[in-house]
Amino acid sequence: MNARSLAALNVGDRIPSLTTEPITRLTLALYAGASGDHNPIHVDSDFARAAGVGDVFAHGMLSMAYLGRLLTNALPQEAIREFSVRFVAITHVGDAVTCEGVVTEKFERAGEPCARMQLTATTQRGVVTLRGEAIVALA
Amino acid sequence: MIDTSLIGWKSGPTTVEVEKGRLRFFAKAIGETNPIYIDESVAQAAGYRSLPIPPTFLFCMEVENASAYRFLDVAGINIGRILHGEQSFRYHHTVCAGDHITFETTISDIYSRKGGALEFFVQDITATNQDGVLVGELRNVVVVRDPAHAEEASR
């Protein structure tokens, strides 16, 4: 999306969605290493069982990174002013994550035309795992 | 019992260098294939000094730096009891490979919900580059499940 089509974004417009491959234990191992988040609950099933959660589960930030890809696939990264999420459900091994974004508001802030986008990450079972929003500059 | 005395606690500054190899590894880990994030010549042709960091990577630099987890030791919380509740970023300037980013974390709030079954730690983090420019701000909310248990387990 170039600057011109960015400016043409309207309330209700959806940016192209993104669906990942199912998350594997390898996905989690790679993400743990690359992200620097070495919390064993995401990669060590013995630790996860002892902590009472049954099995390892995905880093919330992995799904936020997928939402980041959703945004940067659609618009220049420099246009992103704010990006926030709430982690509302756990993402499990085997889940494929679908990321979606829709424009909910257009407004001006400090003289800059902006759009607010509502973001969701949803598993193939229909469970919403992340709810968030981004504020992007339309100039 | 929730201990709010840590509100205002600061991690102290720590500095992390943005490394190209780490950015390529991160791109692989999140399934990012846009060459801007992988191939420095493509990034430079697009006007970047080097590989730009993807939108969530400031968190990764900060967490590797361990300041996000340091309060767990201070508060005596077992890492197996925490969940990430919320995360937000405000972006001010682009960060690229080669930059040195200094993070400073402040615990800005601590509160409990569900009759003390969940405790929330709110951390505000600033990211400043080698020129002293504020490049981004992060806020993360860490949730501690069953805090009484969490403290026992860590002892």
Structure description:
The complex is a heterodimer of chains A (139) and B (155). With 139 residues, chain A is an alpha+beta fold. Helix content of chain A is 27%, strand content 35%. Chain B has five helices and five strands; from the N terminus they run E-H-H-H-H-E-E-E-E-H. Chain B has helices spanning 20-30, 40-45, 57-64, 67-75, 147-154; strands at 14-17, 82-91, 100-113, 118-128, 134-145. A five-stranded antiparallel β-sheet of chain B has the order 1-3-4-5-2. Chains A and B meet through helix 2, helix 3, helix 4 and strand 2 of A and helix 1, helix 3 and strand 2 of B.
Write a concise keyword list for the protein shown above.
heterodimer; A: alpha+beta; 27% helix; B: alpha+beta; five-stranded antiparallel sheet; 5 helices; elongated
Can you give the mean pLDDT of chain B? 89
SS strand fraction of chain A: 35-45%
Q: Could you list the spans of chain A in which at least 5 consecutive residues all have pLDDT below 50?
A: none
Poorly predicted regions of chain B are none
> What is the mean predicted local confidence, pLDDT of chain A?
95
The fraction of residues assigned to DSSP E strands of chain B is: 25-35%
Largest sheet of chain B: 5 strands, antiparallel
Q: Secondary-structure element sequence of chain A? A: HEHHHEEEE
How much helix is in the residues of chain A? Answer: 25-40%
- Read across the widest sheet of chain B, the strand sequence of neighbours is 1-3-4-5-2
Structural category of chain B is: alpha+beta
Largest sheet of chain A: 5 strands, antiparallel
Largest interface: A-B, 42 and 36 residues
Give me the oligomer status.
heterodimer
Backbone CA Rg of chain A:
17 Å
Count of DSSP E strands of chain A?
Answer: 5
